[in-house]
């Protein structure tokens, strides 16, 4: 059974990717850190755990205290920009 893609709430709609890291060295990013509300602080974290180029886990830190408050499967409706 396939669930429809869940859209996760973020602090803002103006996503800026602060970091896109290629941790396995295949030339494609697999970890993304983004700021969605323009304050320069990271609040959206995404991971491509199976390295197919698509996000598998999305974490949102709504209060920017460094601990993700929401974790969803997939890109949460927020595909990476880089
Ligand atoms: Ca932010
Ligand atoms: Ca993936
Ligand atoms: Ca938090």
TrEMBL record:
Bias-annotated ranges (Basic and acidic residues): 8-17
The source's superkingdom equals Bacteria
**Name of the protein in its database record:** Membrane-bound lytic murein transglycosylase B
Species this protein is from: Catenuloplanes indicus
Q: Where is this region: Disordered?
A: 1-30, 61-82
Q: What is the lineage of its organism?
A: Bacteria, Bacillati, Actinomycetota, Actinomycetes, Micromonosporales
One annotated GO molecular function: calcium ion binding
């Amino acid at each position: 059974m396939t669930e429809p893609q869940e859209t996760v709430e973020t602090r803002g709609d103006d996503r800026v990717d602060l970091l896109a890291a290629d941790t396995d060295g295949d030339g494609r990013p697999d970890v993304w850190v983004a700021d969605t509300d323009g304050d320069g602080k990271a609040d959206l974290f995404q991971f491509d755990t199976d390295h197919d180029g698509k996000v598998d886990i999305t974490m949102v830190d709504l209060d920017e205290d460094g601990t993700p408050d929401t974790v969803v499967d997939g890109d949460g409706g927020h595909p990476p920009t880089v």
